[in-house]
């Protein structure tokens, strides 16, 4: 052992990325966060015992593999209090084996920053621990001096747990909804299960997201079954796409008004060659989905495919849009999925995949625009002005959002090169600002061995261009953005409850239609066997 903590001493571990470039870049911010956290603990009379050291050869102090994580926990007192401090995106698989057998109180802590996405990593780790049945508490802070954080830290140090207000959550089965909505939702759920569907999975387990894998038995109970496909098959299929077919997709997008921010340096700029490779991926994904009968697909991209091809995000955004470049089968005899999106779940998040497919078909059935996507629950700040006085979240994803969600559609969409730190071979995003309106948001997750779903309504607001640009600069300016106000849910309630880094969103024509769609979707999911929870301000009648 590195030594059991003494009285009022706590272990600290810092989980990181699998990619060395990300760990090196993010380490200085992680160190600053740990210093702030250590000062907060000292003010409470406690000290930190770091469970693993800085590695001068790697130039960072993160746990950066599952192998290392297991080794670190082999040397810890399993009864001691433990803090997981997260300033960055992290691969949950590195820690889960050790956390599973750690018997002492566990506290996950994240910084509150758009630039350094520790809170996104924390939400993924929390969701993964929830799935595995690991008991934990959680906190977050901008500076580790605010009252909310200090009171929560003090409670954890004294009792081994932190309680959060979750009064915004209500169980759907305890609520009464209009009989017509109940009947419609349950009939649709029964029809969905009878119809059955195939989920195409291009390699599972993206970036340590243990919470994003639904066991086959749970998934099958909804009528959805996995077709496990390899990303190598996707790459091989790309090689069989003719250059002219890829060029036709590219020309279609330019004619629709989509802008491409191009350069000539492959290492740092977006090039036409990268775009054409992404167009081949788009065509290949549709052909493989058609061959295997997939109703929805998810491309992992990280890890593996990133070393062979440009980013998958342009292809993902197009797949999620019903109005998209037409693609024929290899023989040119028929158009594939004509007039329809092929719902894509970014980063192979199967919770989002199941949700996205159900939502797509249900919204079609209700006569509403069916495009939906996941986003990262990335960050947020209070905004006052222009008729808004509320906490406005930044929802952001790497480029899989459909142009139908943007102000101006394709004309409001652009494609920029993915950051070289994560995307060595480049590739463009589908970037845009989400249009104002009402959305139904949701998250399917696993708890106590069962599928659950949280549902709510949010309003997407339009912020001034300067504020949107500022928020983009604070996060990832190449990615699509959504400014969301969650009705009846505070920042801290959202963080305390949400069991994933991802959140699913779908537009409704108006506020009342959003409430009705939520009620019907809740009944559908309940019919499919999910435990459904309604969050925030929702009209149930």
CATH level-four homologous superfamily name of the largest domain: L-fucose/L-arabinose isomerase, C-terminal
Using the alpha-carbon principal axes, give the shape.
globular
- At the fold tier of CATH, the topology name of the largest domain is L-fucose Isomerase, Chain A, domain 3
Order of strands across the widest beta sheet? 11-12-16-15-14-17
Strand proportion, as a percent range, falls in 15-25%
Poorly predicted spans = none
Commentary on this structure:
35% of the residues lie in helices and 21% in strands. It is of the alpha/beta class and 541 residues long. It folds into two domains: 9-159, Rossmann fold (3-Layer(aba) Sandwich), CATH 3.40.50.10940; 174-535, L-fucose/L-arabinose isomerase, C-terminal (L-fucose Isomerase, Chain A, domain 3, Alpha-Beta Barrel), CATH 3.20.14. It has 15 helices and 18 strands. 52% of the residues are buried. The model has no long low-confidence stretch (mean pLDDT 97). Strands 11-12-16-15-14-17 form a six-stranded antiparallel β-barrel, surrounded by four helices. The chain has a five-stranded parallel sheet with strand order 2-1-3-4-5. A three-stranded parallel sheet has the order 8-7-10, with helices on both faces. The termini are far apart. Helix 9 (243-255) crosses helix 10 (272-292).
Compact description:
The protein has helices spanning 20-43, 66-74, 96-101, 118-132, 147-159, 179-195, 216-220, 231-239, 243-255, 272-292, 313-319, 350-365, 465-474, 491-497, 511-527; strands spanning 9-13, 47-50, 82-86, 106-111, 137-141, 169-171, 197-202, 224-229, 259-260, 294-299, 372-385, 388-396, 414-415, 437-447, 450-460, 481-486, 502-508, 531-535. It is an alpha/beta fold and 541 residues long. Helix 3 links the parallel strand 3 and strand 4.
């Amino acid at each position: 052992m590195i030594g059991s903590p003494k009285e009022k001493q706590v272990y600290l571990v810092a989980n990181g990325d699998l990619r060395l470039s990300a760990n090196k870049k993010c380490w200085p911010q992680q160190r600053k966060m740990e210093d702030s956290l250590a000062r907060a603990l000292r003010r409470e009379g406690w000290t930190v015992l770091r469970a693993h050291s800085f590695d001068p050869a790697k130039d960072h102090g993160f746990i950066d593999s599952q192998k290392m994580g297991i080794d670190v926990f082999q040397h810890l007192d399993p009864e001691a209090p433990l803090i997981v401090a997260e300033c960055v995106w992290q691969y949950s698989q590195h820690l889960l084996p050790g956390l599973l057998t750690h018997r002492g109180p566990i506290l996950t802590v994240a910084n509150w920053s758009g630039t350094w996405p520790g809170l996104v990593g924390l939400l993924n780790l929390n969701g993964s621990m929830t799935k595995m049945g690991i008991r934990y508490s959680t906190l977050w802070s901008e500076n580790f001096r605010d009252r909310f954080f200090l009171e929560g830290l003090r409670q954890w140090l004294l009792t081994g747990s932190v309680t959060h207000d979750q009064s915004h959550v209500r169980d759907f089965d305890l609520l009464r909804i209009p009989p017509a909505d109940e009947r419609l939702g349950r009939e649709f759920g029964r029809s969905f299960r009878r119809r059955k569907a195939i989920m195409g999975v291009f390699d599972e387990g993206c970036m340590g997201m243990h919470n994003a894998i639904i066991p086959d038995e749970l998934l099958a109970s909804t009528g959805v079954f996995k077709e496990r496909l390899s990303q190598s098959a996707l790459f091989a299929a790309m090689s069989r796409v003719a250059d002219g077919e890829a060029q036709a997709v590219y020309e279609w997008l330019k004619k629709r008004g989509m802008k491409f921010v191009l350069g000539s340096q492959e290492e740092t700029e977006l090039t036409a060659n990268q775009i054409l490779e992404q167009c081949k991926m788009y065509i290949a994904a549709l052909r493989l989905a058609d061959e295997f009968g997939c109703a929805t697909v998810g491309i992992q991209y990280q890890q593996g495919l990133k070393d062979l091809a440009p980013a998958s995000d342009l292809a993902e955004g197009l797949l999620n849009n019903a109005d998209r470049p037409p693609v024929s089968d290899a023989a040119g005899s028929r158009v594939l999925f004509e007039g329809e999106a092929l719902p894509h779940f970014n980063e192979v998040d199967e919770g989002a995949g199941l949700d996205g497919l159900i939502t797509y078909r249900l919204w079609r059935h209700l006569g509403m625009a069916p495009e939906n996507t996941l986003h990262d629950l990335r960050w947020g700040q209070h905004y006052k002005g222009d008729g808004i006085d509320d906490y406005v979240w930044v929802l952001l994803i790497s480029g899989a959002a459909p142009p139908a969600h943007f102000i101006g559609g394709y004309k409001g969409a652009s494609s920029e090169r993915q950051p070289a730190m994560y995307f060595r071979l480049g590739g463009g995003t589908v970037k845009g600002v989400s249009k104002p309106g009402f959305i139904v948001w949701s998250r399917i997750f696993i708890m106590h061995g069962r599928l659950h779903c949280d549902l709510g309504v949010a309003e997407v607001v339009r912020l001034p261009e300067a504020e949107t640009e500022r928020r983009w600069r604070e996060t990832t300016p190449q990615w699509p953005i959504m400014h969301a106000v969650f009705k009846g849910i505070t920042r801290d309630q959202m963080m305390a409850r949400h069991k994933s880094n991802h959140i699913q969103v779908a537009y409704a024509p108006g506020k009342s239609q959003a409430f009705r769609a939520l009620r019907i979707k809740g009944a559908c999911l309940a019919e499919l066997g999910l435990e459904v929870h309604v969050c925030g301000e929702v009209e149930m009648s």
